[in-house]
Amino acid sequence: MSKTVVKSNKNNIKPITMVIYIFLIILAVIYLAPLLWMLSVSLKDNAGVMAAPFALPEVFHFENYVQAWTLGKLGQALINSVLVCGVTLIVSMFFGAMAAFAIARMRWKFSEAMHTFFLIGMMVPVHCILIPLFVRFAKLGLTNSRFGLMIPYITFSLPMTIFLLTGFFKSMPGELFEAAAIDGCGIYGCFFRIALPLCRTGFFVSGLMTFIGNWNELLLAMVFISDPMKKTLPVTLTYFVGPYATNYVQMFAAIIIAIAPTVIVYCMFSNQIVEGLTTGAVKG
Amino acid sequence: MDKILRDKKAICIFVAPALAMFVLVLVIPVIQMLYYSLCDYAALTPPSFVGLANYKKLFFKDSTFRIALKNSIFFMIFSAVTQQVIGLLLAVMLTNIPKGRNLFKNIYYLPCVLSSAALGLLWAFLFNPKIGINNLLAKFGIEGPLWLMESKGFIVLPMWVIAFVALWQYVGQNMMLYMAQITGISRDVYEASYIDGASKVKAFRYITLPLIKPMVITSLSLNCIGSLKFFDLVYNMTQGGPNHRTEVLATELYAEGFNYFKYGYASAISVVLLVMCLVVTLLVKKVIKVETYES
């Protein structure tokens, strides 16, 4: 048995491999078909969708995109999403790196305890803080504000960031920091000039997880923001569930617009993204 | 050097921002939530302590909560079983094919990075009573069921549909985790086993499975917590309907808290959710024992 396996490996493809390939291709179709079909629907008109939903569009109705963009205020939503996720990304990376550096590199009694404390935070679902935080924010006037939304986003990005970056900082050779200290570098110099620049992979991985997670986040954004001008992309989409529910072509155009940035970035860097996210999850 | 690394002031400065945010936005709200769950608290009146009344009502009087609890547990078990098994299967297949591994991997992983709010809308449309899948079935003379509106059965049909969509979206995550672990196993171990006469199946059973156990813990707990917290797809596909039959804990919490403004009651639901998350994580760690084979 094992002999034939070795032999056939070199010459031709085994039947079992063929079966696997056929299965994988069918599965790939199940994954891609709905997305491509969505693209096709978004270019039809409503009557065409009702008559033959699976046919390709005869005339391309690009005006669906224009209408979805203006009616759904998608431009504003895009700006809001970029703003909220961007600021969250930068702040959580910076705060996370600082805490991770102290935990991984500095010598103090509670560094392990602090690490565990942040890790436990990963298990707490965001739903648990929803009501107390909403009540508090309503009193402080932080509801309905993009700044208010960033606060829980940053906090819930911290555990993963700290966890990943601690691993990266720990793996750096100690001699680097010793050499820097001999040359007169203080602790802040060690952090800014050595630890941060050397941790690019760590930032890429944790930044990716943070950004994708927050970009797609729906519940917090829905609870905290009610002003249409401040809504993020996922919340704007739920808008099409209600009053525009019968206007399918526009809904699909809106969905395409909403997922297009992610799809484009994913196609450009898919290997790094998949590797990066897995590194993150494996360490988590 | 040692002196620099023991600089107390620097440590405080480094840890302070993250710790402050953590305490203010996570720890204190969780404690408040525990207190609110023991209170009668509607949006406009201050909380008044009522003891365990909310929990009594939840478990003994609220039929919607029972449906939500049942659905969440069903969803967790279904997701855990199917996503783990299929994810592992895909990982094994992909690590064994000579070409195209990256292409397939990237395709299956794509939905994981997309917004589930958007994908929920897409699938809700595909399972529309007239237009999507039923239109295809009608061409073969089959009358499809009302996928997202059926309300009969212990676990209603829409729940199965949502669970299927979740499987479609997130199985790539488990596949990736297992692939990372499997490609990390040294080829030598397999070669040695083949020389000793082991078949591929036996090699899988006695080499792959034991060596990926640590990943099973990670993947399974991520999976379980993820499905307990599940909100986006349900909200955008059925909004808990028809007649609350597809309510899960997260949507029930949202409805009680932000549609009916019963803060105290919703807090009790989030306590149940938190306890379930913690219990499941601990259970997964306890049940799956990891033996270390090599350093």
Through-space gap between termini of chain A = 40 Å
Can you tell me the CATH class of the largest domain in chain A?
A: Mainly Alpha
Note the overall shape of chain B. globular
Number of domains of chain A: 2
What is the mean predicted local confidence, pLDDT of chain B? 87
Largest sheet of chain A: none
Protein described:
The complex is a heterodimer of chains A (284) and B (295). With 284 residues, chain A is mainly α. Helix content of chain A is 77%, strand content 0%. In chain A, helix 6 packs across helix 8 (146-170) and helix 11 runs antiparallel to helix 14. Mean pLDDT of chain A is 85; it is low at 1-10. Chain B has a single domain (15-287), classed as Orthogonal Bundle (MetI-like fold). Chain B has helices at 2-5, 8-36, 53-61, 63-96, 101-113, 116-126, 133-139, 157-183, 187-195, 200-211, 213-228, 232-237, 249-259, 263-287, and strands at residues 39-40, 48-49. Chain B is globular, with a radius of gyration of 24 Å. The mean pLDDT of chain B is 87. Chains A and B meet through helix 1, helix 2, helix 5, helix 6 and helix 7 of A and helix 1, helix 2, helix 4, helix 5 and helix 6 of B.
